[in-house]
Design goal:
alpha+beta, 4-stranded mixed beta sheet, 16 strands
Length: 484
């Protein structure tokens, strides 16, 4: 039967009427068995017997308690010894683990030492191999040195012959150098002669220009016949169309030298253009400030020109060179130029190619007279660029983008440095010169791209051909009295 100690609540089995609790040493009675104090004591000898039993039990309990105390002291002593043994064992285990770590580290170092020793052995082998190669190379070098010594001896033997050959070459070179020096001296003399000739020519040009140095810059022909001609330093008033209709304005161009034609590498250059070369104009001349307009043509001839794009201040178009000059070598009296000669008593004609390009460039050496060049292939057409936007009516002009309005009023764009308008674009301009069966036109037109409007650009047209993109500009050799 299982019962619970009332003192410490420990559970234990009690087959007898009571049992001592092993935990707190209290008596634990069976269920239904009250403690002895609850039973009625027997009378007489039973009481004595109970007392004796109780005394014996107390003595036994005391003896057991003493024994248990001694055992507990011994158990505590053993427990302390066990704790010490456990501490010693823990320290021993820790020392053993430390020794194992140290042993592992020692083994690692031993392995590294073995690896280094193996590598050192490999290095020694490699050094020995290199040493063997070095010895082989030394042997080969000694052999090569011996061979070189032999070759040197052979070279020294042959050097005298080579020196003789070199002396011969040197002698020949000196002779050739002397010959070249003589040629250079001749060229220098020729250059000096050219410079002297150029200086003489310069003096002649200066002398030819002297009568015009102080001359007025402009000559004006009044087509109404009031005063033919008159001279002025004042520029034409482009805000007044009189300079485009009832008057013809000309700019004096003094003699000088310039580079005509185009460099071979200039973008847009055509094969029919002259190569760059130096040209000199020995005589001054007057050139038209504007292209000849339709009204001016009518004032001189008395008839309306057959131009496609009509307008008094627009340039003449759709006339051939034979129409306004005549088909012969000289100016026909019934032509526009012939009638203008009769009206003014001036030598009026088309400019030569040299005169035209000299006047167009106005001292510039670039592709256009505004100082600009076509810098790449894309710019040859000039579409959307500013190469000529300020000086020309041409195919790429934003003012003429649709190219359906034809040419424009003369003098609408900026002039060049000499005050000449529309030298680029608007209409091609006829020039003197007879390459084969055709005549030359210069300057490009409203239909031309940028490359055809360059200062050196030209095209060859038969003199009887009429096109709506070609007109002309007049040139005048000044009379002597113009230089007063």
């Amino acid at each position: 039967m299982i019962v619970t100690c009332t003192n410490c609540k420990f559970s234990l089995e009690t087959p007898a009427p009571w049992r001592e609790c092993p935990k707190c040493r209290s008596r634990v009675y069976s269920i239904g068995q009250p403690p002895p104090a609850a039973r009625p004591a027997p009378l007489g000898a039973g009481v004595v017997t109970s007392i004796v039993i109780a005394a014996v039990l107390l003595l036994g309990i005391a003896a057991v308690g003493v024994g248990v105390g001694m055992r507990m002291k011994k158990a505590k002593s053993l427990e302390r010894e066990l704790d010490g043994t456990n501490t010693t064992l823990t320290n021993t285990v820790a020392n053993a683990e430390q020794l194992q770590l140290e042993l592992a580290a020692t083994e690692t170092k031993l392995d590294e030492t073995k690896t280094k020793l193996s590598k050192s052995e490999d290095d020694v082998k490699e050094v020995m191999q290199r040493l063997g190669k070095a010895e082989t190379l030394l042997s080969e070098t000694k052999t090569e040195v011996g061979r070189l010594k032999r070759e040197l001896t052979e070279e020294q033997t042959a050097s005298e012959s080579e020196v003789n050959k070199l002396n011969k070459k040197l002698s020949d070179a000196e002779a050739k150098l002397e010959e070249q020096a003589n040629k250079l001296n001749d060229q220098l003399a020729a250059k000096q002669k050219e410079l002297e000739t150029a200086e003489t020519q310069k003096k002649q040009l200066w002398a030819a220009a002297q009568p015009f140095v102080n001359a007025t810059r402009y000559m004006v022909i009044d087509l109404t016949g009031k005063e033919i001609p008159r001279y002025t330093d004042a520029q034409p008033d482009t805000k007044n169309d009189k300079c485009r209709t009832t008057e013809m304005w000309f700019r004096l161009v003094l003699p000088g030298s310039f580079t005509i034609g185009s460099p071979e590498k200039e973008h847009g250059r055509k094969d029919n253009e002259p190569s760059s070369r130096q040209e000199t104009l020995a005589q001054p001349f007057y050139v038209g400030v504007f292209e000849v307009t339709q009204k001016q043509y009518e004032q001189v001839t008395g008839a309306n020109p057959p131009s496609k794009f009509k307008g008094d201040t627009r340039p003449v178009d759709s006339v051939s060179c034979n129409d306004f000059r005549g088909s012969g070598s000289d100016v026909a009296g019934t032509s526009f130029l012939g009638k203008l000669r009769a009206m003014t008593s001036l030598v009026v004609d088309l400019p030569t190619e040299t005169q035209w390009e000299y006047a167009c460039r106005a001292g510039t050496t670039t592709a256009f007279n505004n100082g600009k060049n076509v810098n790449d292939a894309k710019g040859i057409a000039g579409m959307g660029t500013s190469y000529l936007e300020d000086v020309a009516c041409y195919a790429g002009s934003t003012k003429n983008a649709k190219n359906d309005a034809g040419h424009t009023k003369v003098g609408q764009y900026d002039s060049n440095m000499w005050g000449l308008f529309d030298m680029h674009g608007n209409v091609w301009e006829w020039c003197l010169g007879n390459p084969g069966t055709g005549r030359v036109q210069r300057g490009g037109s409203h239909r031309s791209d940028a490359s055809d409007c360059r200062s050196a650009s030209c095209r060859i047209i038969a003199p009887d051909v009429k096109t709506d993109d070609a007109g002309f500009r007049v040139c005048v050799l000044p009379p002597p009295e113009s230089g007063k």
